[in-house]
Automatic annotation (TrEMBL):
TM annotation in the entry: 12-33
Protein name per Swiss-Prot or TrEMBL: Spherulation-specific family 4
Keywords recorded for this protein, A-Z: Membrane, Transmembrane, Transmembrane helix
Length: 262
């Protein structure tokens, strides 16, 4: 029987999960998700700079995604890069449709949306992104009766502030992806001030290379409690191919913050 999945609860943690699911590699994620059922996790999967050339992921990915799909506080988001609007639309569509083929094989391989990385920022590319978003939404609607009950989640990641017209087609936009120390720059502060509250509530910040846990927590608190962003992620490592030693503490803090804001 079909069941309607719950909408995304804010603030959520967005997880760039670029770690191959060998053996116990995803266990820190499963532990965090299961230990904090009231906290939502938007999890970006990236098997091969996108879904890869095959119509299905390999056995390790299938096993990990089947397990992840059973957890109600997760949204699984497929990675697709756009080369800042220069990637041929046919290639972008092919990646979207590959994720779609995963879904039509059954709910155990659900993909709840698309994370458009290297998204453009200038208004000349608004139509390009709108067209790609329409494809992503249409393919999800046709995936299965169960999944069509929930619209695709669309995230653009320019990593910086983009023309506000992009919010017409995206659900969320990553307005900051950088070393955490850059969060306090005048560029970020001034651009945050240009976004109205309703767009801040659809914006996300991702920070890497944090000095320590205290810096990570101050970032998360400022981004969500003071600025009003929808989602956040901070790690002490410089990329997303390994778990931060502070991951568990960061998630516990985020869950506590969520309850304080309720």
């Amino acid at each position: 029987m079909s069941t309607r999945r719950r909408p995304v609860k804010q603030p959520f943690i967005i997880v760039p999960l670029y770690i191959y699911p060998a053996a116990t590699a995803w266990d820190p994620l499963f532990l965090a998700v299961c230990s904090h059922p009231s906290l939502d996790f938007l999890i970006i999967i990236n098997p091969a700079n996108g879904p890869g050339a095959c119509s299905t992921p390999d056995d390790n990915y299938i096993a990990a995604l089947e397990r992840l799909s059973l957890l109600p506080n997760t949204k699984i988001i497929g990675y697709v890069y756009c080369s800042y609007g220069e990637r041929p639309s046919t290639e972008v569509v092919q990646d979207i449709e590959t994720y779609h083929t995963w879904e039509i094989q059954g709910p155990s391989l659900r993909v709840d949306g698309i994370f458009f990385d290297e998204a453009p920022v200038s208004s000349e590319h608004v139509s390009y992104m709108s067209d790609m978003t329409s494809v992503a939404r249409r393919t999800r609607l046709s995936a299965s009766e169960q999944n069509s009950l929930v619209p695709a989640i669309i995230i653009y990641n320019p990593g910086v502030f983009a023309d506000q017209a992009f919010y017409h087609s995206a659900d969320y936009i990553v307005v900051f992806e950088n070393r955490l120390e850059a969060w306090n720059s005048s560029y970020v502060r001034q651009n945050m001030e240009t976004l109205p509250p309703e767009l801040l509530a659809r914006s996300v910040a991702i920070a890497h290379s944090a000095e320590d846990l205290g810096v990570q927590l101050r970032f998360g608190e400022h981004a969500t409690l003071h600025v009003g962003l929808a989602g956040h992620f901070a790690t002490a490592v410089s990329d997303y191919t390994e778990w931060c030693c502070n991951w568990g503490d960061y998630v516990r803090w985020a869950d506590e913050l969520l309850h304080k804001m309720a």
